[in-house]
Design a protein that fits this description.
It holds the Pfam family Beta_helix. The chain is mainly beta and 509 residues long. It is built from 4 helices and 46 strands. The chain has a single domain, classed as Pectate Lyase C-like.
Length: 509
């Protein structure tokens, strides 16, 4: 499960942003706060609906705070670099497709230099990018990082919504000796300053697909990113990680601030993300998480569907001596992922740890489809003081439910879960602190875990068709722990988590 380091040429990108910021913007002649861009326009026009500008960049260099830039349908083969901010008093600068038309920002034939976005926001506040199709920004060069939307520096109140981002690719050929330098992103947010952060960030309702990412991610928040929501996005059919919250990579200049934190990852659907055909990884690797926290902290991952990835959800740390901490993973449906459903801890003894995290009220169904024996919950190196409660774990054909092959794990609480395996209780398998247990009674007595847990068919409505709601006769109903501090207020459907005094096990209330 070893992952490759990401190659980030932050210095190049910051230098480019500063150069653009020194350009003097032209005077704006349009009346009011609405401006227009059209493929048939001219940058010598006034920017009105009847006399639109031609290029996105001209608009970005011209408009004041509070402006709405409506982009008419058509293909714009240009890069857009935004260095001007809106304001709290006058409002954001908004770039949006006009009405029901689709403005397409197309990178065909454009070169990527360093870490560069087809749309790029550098050190800005109060900017919205909405309703664009962003596509075809590609490179064959190692150490160039093409990105659909790239936000970096510091700033806040940035909204990236309802965009369709696809075919952003790095197709450089890695060698067996050096697999690094083949990287791309769909949306990348890098907090590269300190103490000033990127904050009040919204990434909502976007679709990202057919991205060739190398050793990188479709959506990544890295470094000094403090306060964000990643919600209702559709992320699928990419060759690496879906969503990643990263810390400890040296993105921020001060280690105190170098962690994505205080965020919410909610109601996303993440599927078909895998490194199986990615030449940046060795054959047989299954390390692409649908949702991954690598060194992030103090965030909530809830009400997501994650399936047919390599790993459903992973909360881990790739950096020795550093911890992913205070992450809550709750009310998610996680199924049919290749390696495991949920993974936690460092993937070997040279990595970091997972500390003070909560894994509660998830439905984790028939992952481990690769038949590796990693089970539904993979507990790796150095997990400490985590809570694993109220989850439904249904094994795949391997019959493995939990696999914990490490002895360096302390203070973890595992209880009030419901387990089931295709071959029944007599073949159900748990490994805890590198000792294997077959049968539920043997596992409970040998580990001290799961005193209040059950082994029983959870009776889903129709799991084969992806319907994990509970039948009225399900043993999961009203069998969970009512620990209101960690279970949250809503189930997978947004319905109340607590009805009366009882709580179900699993994602469905």
């Amino acid at each position: 499960m070893k992952k490759l380091s990401r190659i980030l040429l932050v210095g190049l990108s910051l230098g480019l942003g500063l150069a653009i910021g020194n350009v003097q913007p032209p005077a704006v002649s349009a009346a009011g706060t609405e401006y227009y861009v059209a493929t048939s326009g001219s940058d010598s026009n006034a920017g009105t609906s009847d006399a639109p500008w031609k290029t996105l960049q001209h608009a970005a260099d011209a408009v004041p705070p509070g402006s709405k830039v409506y982009v008419r349908g058509g293909v714009y083969k240009e890069k857009l670099k935004i260095t001007r901010s809106g304001s709290a008093s006058q409002g954001p600068i908004v770039f949006a497709s006009y009405g029901n038309e689709t403005a397409i920002v197309d990178g065909t034939g454009l070169s990527a230099s360093g870490n560069e976005g087809l749309i790029e926001l550098a050190d800005v506040d109060y900017v919205t990018i909405q309703g664009f199709e962003i596509r075809n920004f590609t490179t064959t060069s190692k150490n160039a990082v093409p990105t659909g939307i790239y936000v970096h520096g510091a700033g806040g109140f940035i909204n990236l919504s309802d965009n369709k981002i696809h075919d952003i690719k790095n197709t450089a050929t890695p060698t067996a000796k050096d697999r690094l330098g083949r990287d791309a992103h769909g949306i990348a947010v890098y907090g590269t300053k300190a103490p000033a952060s990127i904050h009040n960030l919204t990434i909502n309702g976007n679709e990202l697909y057919n991205l060739v990412l190398g050793s990188s991610e479709a959506v990544v928040l890295n470094g000094n990113v403090d306060g964000f929501t990643v919600t209702s996005n559709l992320i699928h059919d990419n060759d690496n990680i879906g969503i990643d919250l990263i810390g400890f990579e040296g993105t921020a200049p001060n280690t105190t601030y170098d962690q994505a934190r205080n965020g919410l990852v909610k109601s996303n659907r993440v599927y078909n993300n895998s490194v199986r055909n990615n030449p940046s990884y060795k054959s047989g690797d299954n390390s692409a998480g649908g949702i991954y926290v690598d060194g992030g902290k103090e965030s909530i991952i809830e009400q997501n569907y994650s399936y047919n990835n390599d790993i459903g959800v992973e909360i881990a740390s790739e950096h020795v001596g550093k911890a992913t901490s205070n992450i809550t993973v709750r009310s998610n449906v996680i199924y049919n992922n290749r390696l495991t459903g949920i993974a936690m801890g460092g993937y070997d003894d040279e990595r970091g740890s997972t500390v003070n995290c909560k894994i509660v009220n998830n439905t984790v169904y028939k992952n481990d489809t690769f038949d590796d024996g990693s089970g539904q919950l993979l507990v790796q190196y150095n997990t400490r003081n985590n809570v694993i409660k109220n989850n439904i774990f249904v094994a795949s054909s391997t019959d493995v439910l939990i696999y914990n092959g490490n002895t360096k794990n302390t203070g973890n609480i595992v209880d009030y879960n419901l387990y089931f395996a295709p071959s029944g209780n007599s073949e159900a398998n748990w490994t805890w602190k590198n000792k294997e247990y077959v049968g539920f009674s043997a596992y409970k007595s040998g580990t001290g875990n799961d005193t209040h847990s059950l082994f029983s068919d959870p009776k889903f409505m129709n799991a084969t068709k992806g319907d994990f709601h509970l039948q009225s006769s399900s043993p999961a109903i009203d069998s969970g722990s009512t620990d209101n501090a960690i279970i949250g207020t809503e189930d997978i459907d947004g319905e109340p988590r607590v009805k009366g005094t009882a709580v179900n096990i699993g994602a469905d209330e």
